[in-house]
Amino acid sequence: MKKTQLFTTIDAASKVVGKTWPLYSFVTSNPLSGYENMPFQKAIEKVENTLGANAMPSPEMFRKAWEGEEINRDILSKLLLAEGYKDSPEHSLSILEAQRVSQQKNENHQLDQIVTKWLGAFMDEGVSEWQMPNRQKGFYAAWRALAPYDSQIKSIKASEIPKTKTEALLQVLSSYSEEECGKIMEYHLAALPGWTGYIKLRVDEDSLWHKKNPITLEDYLAVRLWIAHKIGTKILPKKNENGNRSEYLKLAYIWLKAWEKSWQQDLTSTLRSKAILKGGIEKPDAQMVFCIDTRSEAIRRHVESQGKYETFGYAGFFGIAMDYENMEDGNTRKSCPPIVNSSYKVSEASKDNQQEVFSNFKKKIERRQFGNYFLRRLKNMLPSAFGYVETTGAAYGVSLLLKTLVPDYLYRFNQKNKTNHEHFCDTKLTKYTSEAAIEEKAGIVKAAFDLMGWEEFAPLVLFVGHGSHSSNNAFSSSLECGACAASPGRHNARMLASLANDKEVRGFLQNEFELSIPNDTVFIGAEHNTTTDEIVLFDADVPETHLERLKNLKNDLLSIQKKATQERLQDTSNSVAKAQRKANDWTETRPEWGLAKNATFIIAPRALTKSLNLRGRSFLHSYNWELDSSGAALEGIMQGPMVVTQWINNHYYFATVNNEAFGGGSKITHNITGKFGAVTGNGGDLKIGLPLQSLMETDDEAYHQPLRLSVCIQAPIKRIEKILEKNPSLKNLFENEWIYLMVMDPEDGNKIKNYEKGMVWGQHSASIAGRKKERLQQVEDSVLMPV
Which pLDDT score, from 0 to 100, does residue 281 have? Predict the structure, then answer.
């Protein structure tokens, strides 16, 4: 291979692995994002050949769905017949069950063990007291300096190791053809997808750790391939021993599609038969904007049933492309979708009349940080480690006992005595390149109202971000807001409320856009705790004129929390305490289900879904097609939130169908490495996906149903066609069947039509039960879902 071709080949080969996100911001993303330019079915075949990993639901999953009547016989039979299968569905299922993937021995075990040892030492983010030397020179150079002392690589001399990574790669690959080199790189990058995915992330994000200790895929391959050559491991991969499984995958794909089409049919029937616009609330006492997250669906229903309240759905970063500087730990982290570049930095500043409280709080933080640093040094340093255990054992024992026996009481005590800086701090928005101008601040507010199709304002408007609470949970960030890059949404919610309350911003909106916000409308940031269903309001600046309304709202929120936890936990006796116990119990492997069972993204007015119990399976984004004549708002929703929900959906799908390859394994055997990742036992690959406990009800029974995302949009089809023609990457997601698209066209009697290849629109048939419901409803209402 020529030097000029080397890096191009590595870049192409790197598509076989996605990015691995660190535990402190564990973003759920499509692990096969590099394959989205090809049809889903072909991508699955390629993954099996390249990674040796099955990416289809198991026959056992299909069996359970079939026996649970989740797969419609008529739909499945038609799909089987269309592909030339004339036997019964039962017979085709028996064919799937008769085939089993043979387990292949990992012939690279020794190589993997050596390489992960070096990667762990080099990429450490603060766990080790003694850091690997020369890390600032880069991974290859640091490894080269120490490699002669590696007892696992015998008889190695410094003089025989090439001086640069390029020389090392060319030396190993010199006897292979260009095609073989491509296969070699794909194979060795895919051998440890967790580690290589994290290298990709560090490079692409140009993270602080990458700047301090640079490592690239070229570094990794140079080290790995040179070691492989030295210890005699086969460089060129052999063919998959499972042989040609294309027929199996073809049949399994038919079953998957039938399962998905059956789900869509039920959804269509539900929307057509029940979602009748009955008229809105005359003027709500309060309006609440929740994240589109599936966990918001249930809480929104309970909010609306409690009183004169109106709810909206909006991506939980609230349209602010920001990073957030946490004043408690000093870290600045992304708080907007990973696909969006951050334009702003949000930090905390003292309120004008709270400088003394703010100063005392900062001093308290500094004392706590020093205490934590001091204790960590005592625990990790060899001379003091044993004394540390002896002197602190009793205190740790008491704490552990309380967390074990009375975690709910301890949770309430801690929450009651917690100092919330939101009461004496304001969020401050600054640009990275320049000062944020008034027109930019107003633009953020206007965009939010435009995308949601907002028409009038209540006296109280809440922007409700969401966060989660769990104890002893390495994957806790995966339960935070996906739209905020696995950070809690409270900071974004507070920032948008602050902008919307700004008099200058309101004046600009009135003068430039004729967007009039009433003087008596007050915006409040809030947070929905998805583990306990508590909604906390950051209401320190609410004027006295609104305190009575605020009091009534808070009382209602307590009732809402009780009803929501009863539904979610299926427990009518003290459900709130049970939720608090799950949140604070250090032995709890599943504090909440997160976004498990997600299957649908609905982009439409709330009137379409308000009366429906969608069982927490739908992302809900507010949208009013009549107020979006240009289609700009819908285009923004499809470019941003829709793509993010596709990432989430695919992450759950792949981690469910093959948790060993695409998931996180069991939490019980996890160990944390380098502060950023989890491994099973004492080593191996970084876990790239969700653990089993987030997806499985029992060891053998899946809780999440691995279905690809079905997007349903209420808008004119011609508007959607223009958007797709303008955005080929979005169109490809539908063309290649990574997402399904259903459109409810208000200009054609609200008929639901489904997208088919070539941008053909097929009529979406309702189920027999659905059609019966429709006819009954049409007697009651002559007009179906007017907008």
Answer: 63
| Helix count and strand count (H, E) for the chain | 28, 17
Reading across the β-sheet that carries 760-763, which strands appear in turn?
Answer: 618-622, 600-604, 710-714, 740-745, 751-756, 760-763
- Other beta carbons within 10 angstroms of residue 46's beta carbon come to 16
DSSP assignment of 140-161 equals: HHHHHHHGGG-TTS-S--GGGS
- Whether 548 and 634 map to the same domain: the answer is no
Angle at 57 between CA 696 and CA 759, to 5 degrees: 120
**DSSP letter string over 642-709?**
HHHHHHHHHHHHHHHH-HHHHS---GGGEEEETTTEEEETT-SSPP-S--GGGTBSSSS-BSS-----
Looking at the structure, tell me whether residues 483 and 628 fall in a common domain.
no
**Quick one: DSSP state of residue 68?**
T
Q: In whole angstroms, give the CA distance from residue 345 to residue 677.
A: 26
716 pLDDT higher than 90: yes
Residues 765 and 746 in one domain: yes
Residues 640, 772 share a domain: yes
Give the whole-number percent of the chain exceeding pLDDT 70.
Answer: 94
Rg (CA), the chain: 28
The string of DSSP letters for 146-212 reads HGGG-TTS-S--GGGS-SSHHHHHHHHHTTS-HHHHHHHHHHHHHHSHHHHHHHHHHHHHT-HHHHH
Beta bridge partners of 309: 286
Q: What is the 3-state secondary structure (H, E, C) of 558-574?
A: HHHHHHHHHHHHCCCCC
Angle between helices 139-146 and 217-231 (to 10 degrees): 30
Q: What are phi and psi of 628, to 5 degrees?
A: -130, 60
Q: How many angstroms separate the CA atoms of 535 and 249, rounded? A: 46
Pairing of strands 760-763, 751-756: antiparallel
Enclosing domain of residue 436? 275-367+408-596
Question: Which of 242, 112, 120 lies closest to 188 in space, CA to CA?
Answer: 112
Asked whether residue 512 falls in the same domain as residue 607, the answer is no
Residues 6+ apart with CB under 8 A from 237: 183, 184, 187
Could you tell me how far CA 286 lies from the centroid of its own chain? 29
Q: Which of 494, 545, 497 is nearest to 517 (CA)?
A: 497
pLDDT value for 778 = 42
Give the integer Cα–Cα distance in Å for 156 and 148: 5
In a domain, 501, yes or no: yes
Measure Cα distances from 376 to 367, 371, 674 in Å: 14, 8, 15
Do residues 624 and 313 make contact, with C-beta atoms less than 8 angstroms apart?
no
Considering the domain boundaries, does residue 65 fall inside one?
yes
Could you write out the three-class secondary structure of 470-511?
CCCCCCHHHHCEHHHCCECCHHHHHHHHHHHHCHHHHHHHHH
First to last CA, the chain: 62
With residue 374 as reference, give the H or E element that holds it: helix 355-380
Contact 234, 681 (CB under 8 A): no
**Are the C-beta atoms of 695 and 702 separated by less than 8 Å?**
yes
Report how far residue 632's alpha carbon sits from residue 247's, in angstroms, rounded to the nearest whole number.
43
Q: Are residues 441 and 515 in the same domain?
A: yes
- For 7-16, write each residue's pLDDT tens digit: 899 999 999 9
Lowest model confidence (mean pLDDT) among 282-286, 535-539, 596-600: 282-286
pTM above 0.85, yes or no: yes
Q: Are residues 264 and 125 in the same domain?
A: no
The span from the CA of 157 to the CA of 155, in Å, is 7
- Domain membership flag for residue 683: no
What 3-state DSSP class applies to 322?
A: strand
Query: Rounded to whole angstroms, what are the CA distances from 531 to 6, 559, 592, 723?
Result: 49, 16, 6, 37
CB 461 within 8 A of CB 309: no
Instruction: Please say whether the dihedral angle defined by the alpha carbons of residues 451, 453, 457 and 460, taken in this order, is positive or negative.
Output: negative
Q: How many domains does the chain have?
A: 3
Report how far residue 650's alpha carbon sits from residue 18's, in angstroms, rounded to the nearest whole number.
Answer: 12
Average pLDDT of the residues in 407-433: 92
